[in-house]
Amino acid sequence: MVYTLHKSFDNLKITLLNVGYADLSHKWDYDNVISPYSRLYYITDGTAKVYHNNTAYVLKPDYLYLIPSYTYSRYKCDEHMSQYYISVMDEIGQSFSMYNFYEFQYEVQAIPGDRDLFERLLTINPNRNLVREDPKVYDNRPTLLSFIERNKELSSSAMLETQGIIKVLFSRFLKDESAPSKKSIWNERILETVRYIHENLPHVLLVEDLARRCHLTPDHFSRLFLESTGQRPIKYIQHKRIERAQLLLTTTANSLQTIAEKVGLENISYFSRLFKKETGKTAGEFRREHWA
Length: 292
Description:
Blueprint (H helix, E strand, L loop, with lengths): L1 E2 L8 E13 L4 E5 L4 E9 L1 E5 L2 E5 L3 E5 L5 E4 L4 E12 L14 E3 L4 H11 L10 H4 L2 H9 L6 H16 L14 E2 H12 L7 H7 L4 H12 L3 H19 L4 H7 L5 H12 L3 H8 L2
Antiparallel strand pairs: 1-11, 2-9, 3-8, 4-7, 4-9, 5-6, 5-8, 7-10
């Protein structure tokens, strides 16, 4: 199945998982987070950092932040931060996300009324906060299903209001709405493959195996992948591995060998050559220039 831009928001389904308010400390320090849902933050006090999409975002008061689903990210608070948070799943059709059709920014200054929206969402969805901060505690199917089940307890009016508030908040992050994303056409099987790649970068990823997962020949699979992503599978995998290596180089003290292994490039010589080919710099040079 293929979805185009015009079928996107008309078929958008938003599912609330959690909403709450949290005071965070230095214990908020998590790496290798890839969640099947999006997070929205409204910062009220203090500061922290979130790393995703190869960018470090300094979280600061009176700003909203979006961490998209299926994105490799890292979270770190050195001292203290207070925030409202919302976690939601979005779906278009059976497998697509709004991120496949539109471009989003991930940091926006709050406008009057945004804090009221978070507080209202808390009021009509009581006891939906996360008990523990560690994402790996609740990033699993049984727990997510239990979160989703809680929506059945809402009245019809509360459900409708919840959907409206979340969509209003997401609208803050949309880039130029008159300009469709370059990612305007996606094949459903390729989208699932892209998610699989992101979650399995440390492991061996062969085009033949990926094609087999889609029940396609390697040639047919490669053509569909190119149409959806603009890159051949091997090139896409290489790019994502180096992109993740850049993140690890700037946010951890891991050795180059450890980073190479974490992104699925155990041969350090090959990793070094590929890194310089993709970035124009050696991994060591990149770390020195971007160390955070």
